[in-house]
Amino acid sequence: MTEVEHVDVLIIGAGLSGIGAAHHLQEAFPGKTYRILEARDAIGGTWDLFRYPGVRSDSDMHTLGYRFRPWGQAKAIADGASILRYIRDTAAEAGADRHIRFGHRVVSAEWSSEEARWTVEAVHDGAPVRLTCGFLYSCSGYYRYDAGHMPEFPGVERFGGTVVHPQHWPEDLDYTGKKVVVIGSGATAVTLVPAMAEQAEHVTMLQRSPTYIMALPAEDPIANRLRRLIGSRRAYPIVRWKNVVVITLLYRLSRRRPRLVKSVIRKGLLRRLPPGYDVDTHFTPRYQPWDQRMCFVPDGDLFRAIRRGRASVVTDRITEFTRTGLRLESGAELDADVVVTATGLRLLAFGGVRLAVDGREVRLPETMTYKGMMLSGVPNFVFTIGYTNASWTLKADLVSEYVVRLLRHLDAHGYDQCVPRNDDPTVTPRPLLDFQSGYVLRSVDEFPKAGSRAPWRLGMSYAHDLITFRYRAIDDGALRFSRRPAASTAGRRAG
């Protein structure tokens, strides 16, 4: 009989969050054992999955980068290959890559209070694999990796060209000199359009409704100057905090004075788009700034492609595909050789892993998130969900730091288990992701709930979360600690 491997901590996912978690863990606890289970065959998660033209960060790398490893390149808005290399170099330097088991897709995890451990089931090469751990740490994000969102388009089967979703970009797709239609208006679409426009005959961004789009410098002049003056390691925290403050102020100003922010965005668009361009139709959303995530384009590359006539924007709805392109509700037709369906992502909580506690299935919509990183009634389990209004890694780093503090607390007091309990009937449930993007609205009911107040809210303020995660007491009354029954009994007998 094959012996089941046991580790102190099991991390699910070898992407940006998982590699960061591994670094924090082994820095704090060189004596603890850990493994990373990765469903795919490579490090990088999202940044290894997406291969479409121009793929890049939509956050600056001084905040998307790890707190503990400065981003040293000149470009602050980085391409996907550079980000992937950064993650892999981080894993190699820390030795975390030696702890990864690739091709291991976790399907279920069951907690036993009697044994104070998780039994985790994974699939590798079609065969089941079992591990046990004392602490389970999900860093799988919330995107579904095997399929993106693809609406049903009438007549798509009779289209004579190529239809491709950005999540499954074919390596051999040649669009040189061809007419391309990109369906969508989010971060993926505004990245694809200028990138494809460099080789295509023309690229049309077809959107049902506009998105807020702002231009940012691809390089941060303050960061680059500070790096030259005082070096990367000393400059990094200064630039990181500068960018945190800027994005926080923009977000808060957007929520409190949306008309002012809309006016600023509009003036920027008028400066960058051709004279007389219909900004109201194509770049003025119906919603308020930051009801959905704002798109940032480095050096205004999207607007530059429009000015040069290499790209255009059409705001309309699709009636059907034709043999040569798309027919729209307005009666207009768009000719296309290639149609890219940048129609969004699909969400999947914890990578679809089924959780159970002492033989009872955990129904996620019936749980409430504690500090946006643990589940009520689920012991020794932590997950990472990043910010929707700032860089993902800002939150991921804080969660990792909190996990270190939590494990130290367990060790110092001889506890085996910690579990959040909500005994306050005045705390009311709310959606975990209070965001109006389509990919969120389609799936949010399948996710755990947030609460109406701390510590059950999912925080969206880095400064507030930094104080909460790094400095406030671990034992706050909502998080309950205990020893497994066998350990308690042994202790009484010894006494």
Automatic annotation (TrEMBL):
Keywords: FAD, Flavoprotein, Monooxygenase, Oxidoreductase
PANTHER family reported for this sequence: MONOOXYGENASE, PUTATIVE (AFU_ORTHOLOGUE AFUA_8G02570)-RELATED (PTHR43872)
Record-stated family: Belongs to the FAD-binding monooxygenase family.
Flavoprotein as UniProt keyword: yes
Keyword field contains Ribonucleoprotein: no
Pfam families: FMO-like, NAD_binding_8
Name of protein: NAD(P)/FAD-dependent oxidoreductase
Cofactor(s) for this UniProt protein: FAD
Native organism: Actinoallomurus liliacearum
